[in-house]
């Protein structure tokens, strides 16, 4: 169970457990959940013929209106689900979704129409009792369907660490199962999985906790769960559960689940599910990128490709993002040749597409240029940067010229490095033109561009324009709140070009 205080506005573990239940209950029309569950159960009980016979019987005869009867029977279902709910093992919960959803729906269909009071008894240590005492008016959720009785149970005096729950249930929260349960079960009520409770009071003398069910519209409950619910909601369950796991710091559970799904081939031949599996590996890789674990990120992006390759040709445009991400991770680790290889494959995926994503083509071209710049192969870098410029100039950028500014700056630096000051000057001018057209241009970038223009003009012997640009560079840099070493450098550049202009004028007399 999870308990949160009435003052809590965030509780990651409470929210995780609640949203995990909600996600497990999500309908997934893309999957054959029953087949997937039975395959998993047969593997689980591969060496137990008695349970395998029960699984065969379930496959042949099960109907949803018998979910309660099967759940209360001592068989493979109750055993696996008991462990799944107790340990919250993500693979068990994911694979058992078919039956969990069937049981949930049957309880809903015959749920109580009027408020009732029911009772249940649970083993609980001293710490749990104290936690209830400390969180009166807080919320409680249980990890499983909760069995209960209509009559208060008798406490065993030998078991002082038991808690009796007296629960005031609103309508539609539980089902009377006396006529539906198997002979293995003695409980008369089954509370649905998605029920939420508030702690009303506790009687420490009798170890009785008084709870009441609350609506999912409860403001405190919504405050705790709605922000993350909005963040993770997806159309396909595997993608939603992956986002939930990663947003709540369950990276290894997500990694384990996605690998299990790939290995058991339960998504085989279903492009939608395989694409979602690939997307889950992207999420895992992105989490590694945030943690600066480039090698593990590459591993996850390769797994994304692995999923795509099961239903798409190797150069399909959908694969380009995975190839590009792998290239970026190689680049971060200074594996330049591998970086170029995968960025090139990403680029080819788009160029061969019937309807290329031109933004992606520009991005991948720019990424390749970055590797060449690191290798000091400026001529090759310029080739890819110019391609990116042509594409960006053709695209509608909704008035945002910053990508073009960045490309012009890179091209000008490349020309400068190969000693072509004239071409560098042309691109510095293009950079400045776009910067001045920005709404509220910042002084520091303008100062840098004017400084670069000054050095280019000076290299070409045009000292008058070099002085003008150096003066503007210093002027803009003085507008920057924090003065730094750049100001001294720019002032020094100004003095140098002034002296050269003066000397040129003297020599021309």
From TrEMBL:
Does Protease count among this protein's keywords? no
Pfam families assigned? TPR_12, TPR_8
TPR repeats: from-to residues: 447-480
Transmembrane annotation, as ranges: none
In terms of InterPro entries, this protein maps to: TPR-like_helical_dom_sf, TPR_rpt
User: Which keywords does this Swiss-Prot/TrEMBL entry list?
Assistant: Repeat, TPR repeat
The name on file for this protein is: Uncharacterized protein
Q: Which organism is it from?
A: Adineta steineri
């Amino acid at each position: 169970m999870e308990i949160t205080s009435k003052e809590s506005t965030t509780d990651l573990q409470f929210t995780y457990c609640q949203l995990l239940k909600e996600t497990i209950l999500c309908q997934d029309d893309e999957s054959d959940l029953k087949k997937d569950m039975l395959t998993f159960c047969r593997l689980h009980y591969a060496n137990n013929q008695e349970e395998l016979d029960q699984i065969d019987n379930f496959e042949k005869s099960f109907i949803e209106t018998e979910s309660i009867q099967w759940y209360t029977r001592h068989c493979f279902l109750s055993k696996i689900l008991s462990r799944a709910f107790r340990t919250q093992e993500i693979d068990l919960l994911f694979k058992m979704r078919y039956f969990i959803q069937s049981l949930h729906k049957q309880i809903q269909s015959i749920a109580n129409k009027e408020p009732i009071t029911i009772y249940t008894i649970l083993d609980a240590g001293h710490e749990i009792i104290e936690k209830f005492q400390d969180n009166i008016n807080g919320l409680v959720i249980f990890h499983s369907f909760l069995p209960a009785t209509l009559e208060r149970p008798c406490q065993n005096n030998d078991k002082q660490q038991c808690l009796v729950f007296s629960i005031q249930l609103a309508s539609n929260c539980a089902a009377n199962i006396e006529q539906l349960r198997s002979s293995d079960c003695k409980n008369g009520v089954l509370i649905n999985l998605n029920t939420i409770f508030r702690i009303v009071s506790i009687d420490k003398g009798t170890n009785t906790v008084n709870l009441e069910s609350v609506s999912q519209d409860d403001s405190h409950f919504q405050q705790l769960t709605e922000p993350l619910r909005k963040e993770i909601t997806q159309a396909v369950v595997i993608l939603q559960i992956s986002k939930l796991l990663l947003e709540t710091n369950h990276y290894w559970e997500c990694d384990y689940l996605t690998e299990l799904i790939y290995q058991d081939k339960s998504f085989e031949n279903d492009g939608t599910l395989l694409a979602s599996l690939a997307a889950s590996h992207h999420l895992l890789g992105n989490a590694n990128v945030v943690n600066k674990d480039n090698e593990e990120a590459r591993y996850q992006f390769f797994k994304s490709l692995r999923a795509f390759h099961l239903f798409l040709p190797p150069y399909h445009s959908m694969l380009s993002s995975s190839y590009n991400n792998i290239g970026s991770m190689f680049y971060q680790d200074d594996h330049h040749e591998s970086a170029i290889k995968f960025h090139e494959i990403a680029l080819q995926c788009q160029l061969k597409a019937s309807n290329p994503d031109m933004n992606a083509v520009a991005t991948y071209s720019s990424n390749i240029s970055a590797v060449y710049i690191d290798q000091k192969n400026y001529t090759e870098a310029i080739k890819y940067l110019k391609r990116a410029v042509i594409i960006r100039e053709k695209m509608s950028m909704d008035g945002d010229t910053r990508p073009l500014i960045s490309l012009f700056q890179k091209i000008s630096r490349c020309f400068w490095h190969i000693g072509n000051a004239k071409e560098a000057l042309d691109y510095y001018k293009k950079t400045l033109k776009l910067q001045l057209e920005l709404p509220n241009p910042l002084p520091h970038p303008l100062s840098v561009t004017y400084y670069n223009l000054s050095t280019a003009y000076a290299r070409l012997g045009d000292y008058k324009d070099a002085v003008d640009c150096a003066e503007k560079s210093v002027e803009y840099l003085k507008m920057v709140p924090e003065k730094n070493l750049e100001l001294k450098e720019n002032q020094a550049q100004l003095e140098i070009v002034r002296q050269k202009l003066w000397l040129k004028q003297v020599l021309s007399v």
